[in-house]
């Protein structure tokens, strides 16, 4: 009987085996994908550097105003002629320095304020401005009964720059003059500060302050506007509330810079309660007619006119 010889062993191609050509092709694909991935990561990294500083803080993109000036207008109590002067003054200042204005109507916040004094409107107005301009850095609330008198001075050079602010900061002084036991910290630096405000002869004054956008700002505004504080019936409403928050919460005090009154809150000669050297002098950035809306013997529109005319004259001379 003859047996068939087994087939000779040799290289047999497996039906599912990859050819050397396919392997080489696959390697080239993987190399290309790897190179593309690295390139994409590099692009994302470079883009991230355009929008974030090395410390992780947002950098203002082109076209975004660095400063938003917040003004709460009472269109019921004051004439349109008076308010238009305020608006025109603000718009001129903002246009000069690349800022923008946020003009809020007091009545828009009535449902939030409830039965509390109308002056509380400043807090939701600033929060509203931040929501409207989420990429802007600083929010400068300025009482409507005030105007810019030195339009060429930018807020950056006047208060916001590192050297300038550290020069202005009043360290180790009573938060509420003249003898509050709570004092401003002596070790604070420019980068620590989120809230810049002045005091007059009697205490903090919220008619003019600067707040930096961020988590702290939102925390402060939420705390400041707490319903319990609004119902507490503080004599000076939101002003006394802020004094309370600053003195009882070191977290807030650690972010606060008290600056000389005339820097952003100089009172007119007719205003009472100015701090020492807190009354307006020629060359000051702002004049504020503090109390003109609460003293029945005074008239805001009448007090504004001579200073507004002086400001308008300066514009013509430029």
Automatic annotation (TrEMBL):
Keyword Calcium in annotation: no
UniProt-listed Pfam families: Glyco_transf_34 (PF05637)
Molecular function in Gene Ontology: transferase activity
This protein's name: Galactosyl transferase GMA12/MNN10 family-domain-containing protein
Organism encoding this protein: Aspergillus cavernicola
Residue ranges crossing the lipid bilayer per the database entry: 30-52, 58-78
UniProt keyword annotations, A-Z: Glycosyltransferase, Membrane, Transferase, Transmembrane, Transmembrane helix
UniProt similarity note: Belongs to the glycosyltransferase 34 family.
């Amino acid at each position: 009987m003859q047996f068939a010889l087994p087939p000779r062993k040799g290289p047999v191609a497996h039906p599912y085996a990859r050819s050397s050509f396919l392997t080489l092709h696959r390697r080239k694909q993987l190399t290309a994908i790897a190179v593309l991935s690295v390139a994409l990561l590099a692009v994302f990294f470079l883009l991230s550097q355009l929008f974030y500083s090395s410390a992780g803080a947002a950098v203002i993109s082109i076209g975004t105003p660095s400063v938003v000036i917040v003004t709460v207008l009472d269109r019921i109590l004051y004439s349109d002629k008076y308010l238009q002067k305020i608006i025109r003054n603000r718009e001129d200042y903002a246009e000069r320095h690349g800022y923008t204005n946020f003009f809020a109507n007091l009545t828009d916040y009535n449902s939030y304020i409830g039965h509390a004094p109308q002056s509380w409107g400043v807090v939701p107005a600033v929060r509203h401005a931040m929501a409207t301009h989420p990429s802007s850095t600083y929010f400068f609330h300025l009482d409507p009964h005030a105007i810019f008198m030195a339009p060429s001075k930018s807020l950056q050079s006047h208060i916001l720059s590192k050297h300038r602010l550290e020069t202005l900061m009043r360290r180790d002084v009573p938060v509420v003059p003249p003898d509050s036991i709570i004092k401003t910290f002596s070790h604070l630096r420019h980068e620590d500060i989120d809230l810049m405000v002045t005091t007059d002869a009697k205490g903090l004054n919220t008619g003019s302050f600067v707040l930096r956008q961020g988590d702290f700002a939102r925390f402060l505004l939420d705390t400041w506007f707490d319903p319990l504080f609004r119902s507490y019936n503080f004599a000076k409403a939101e002003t006394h509330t802020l004094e309370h928050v600053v003195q009882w919460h070191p977290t807030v005090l650690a972010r606060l810079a008290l600056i000389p009154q005339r820097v952003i809150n100089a009172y007119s000669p007719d205003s009472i309660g100015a701090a020492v050297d807190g009354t307006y002098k020629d060359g000051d950035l702002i004049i504020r007619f503090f109390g003109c809306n609460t003293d029945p013997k005074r008239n805001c529109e009448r007090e504004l006119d001579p200073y507004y005319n002086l400001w308008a004259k300066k514009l013509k001379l430029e």
